C-alpha cells in the first residue's frame, strides 16, 4: 500500500467500491480481523507478559549497553514517554516529570532508541534545514507495549473510546514505517505542523520529492473538517503533491475530492 500511494498513476484512480453490509463502528477496529490493526493491537493488549519483556530489555540489554547510575529511572522514563506517545518530544518537561537532569535524561532516551523501544518522527518542511532543527514527535515501537504501559485493556477501550486515538495513531505510524522499509519506493516519513495549528499526522516523501499526506482518525465517520489539514498540506507541497488519505475506523472509502479519500484501516494491507 505504501508504494501504491506514491505512484503517479493513482491520481486518476477512483475510489474502490465499498463492500456491502458492513456497519461502520469504531469498535470494529478492535474486534474484526478484516481491519488487521485490530488483530495486532489486540494481541498486544492481551499479552500482559509484555511487562516482564520490558523489564528484561531495560534491566539486561540497557544495563549492558551503558553504565547507568539509576537503572530504575529508565523504565520510569519509558512509561512517561508512553503516556505522551504521538506528542512532541520535550526534554525539559520530561526532565521535570522524571526528576532527572536533562543531560542524564537525554542519555537514557538515546538508550531507549538504541534498543528500538521508541522512535522519533521528524517534521516535514520544504526547507530541508528546518527538518533537522524542529522538534520531533515520539512513538513507541510496539503498540502492544504502548497499550500495556498505558494500562489499556479491551474493556477500557470499549468503555472509554477516547483512549483509541493515540493507540491507533501509534499503530498506524509504526505500520507505515515498517511497510516503507520494504517498499520499492522507500519513502521517508515525517509529520507536518504549522505555527497556525494546521497539522497532518504523517507525510510520506519519496526521493523525487513527491508527497502523500496521511491522517489517522479513531472515529467511524468523517466530515469535511477531517481533511482540512491535508488540503493545507497539498497547498504547501504544490506540484509535488500526490494524494491525501484519512485512515479511519469506518467501512467505506469516502471521496473528498481529487486524490483525497477517507480509507478504512484495513486498506493498509491491500494494494
Describe, in plain words, how this protein is organized in 3D:
This protein has about 270 residues and is α/β, with parallel strands linked by helices. It has one domain. It has an eight-stranded mixed beta sheet with strand order 2-1-3-4-5-6-8-7, with helices on both faces. Helix 2 packs across helix 8 and helix 4 packs across helix 6. The longest helix is centred in the middle third of the chain and has 19 residues.
Assembly state: single chain
- What is the string of helix and strand elements? HHHHHHEHEHHHEEEHEEE
Number of helices: 11
Gap from first CA to last CA: 5 Å
How many individual domains?
1
Number of strands: 8
Mean pLDDT across residues:
79
Strand order of the largest sheet: 2-1-3-4-5-6-8-7
Poorly predicted tracts of residues: 8-27, 30-45
Percent of residues in helices? 40-55%
Q: Measured on Cα atoms, how large is the radius of gyration? A: 19 Å
Secondary structure category = alpha/beta
Short account of what is shown:
The chain is built from eleven helices and eight strands. It is of the alpha/beta class and 271 residues long.
Question: What key attributes describe this structure?
Answer:
41% helix; globular; eight-stranded mixed β-sheet; 271 residues; alpha/beta; single chain
Question: Topology, pairings included?
Answer:
Layout: H1 2-5, H2 36-46, H3 50-65, H4 73-83, H5 91-98, H6 102-114, E1 118-123, H7 128-133, E2 137-140, H8 143-150, H9 154-159, H10 164-182, E3 188-193, E4 199-205, E5 211-216, H11 228-237, E6 241-248, E7 254-257, E8 260-264
Parallel strand pairs: 1-3, 5-6, 6-8
Antiparallel strand pairs: 1-2, 3-4, 4-5, 7-8
Helix pairs in contact: 2-8, 4-6
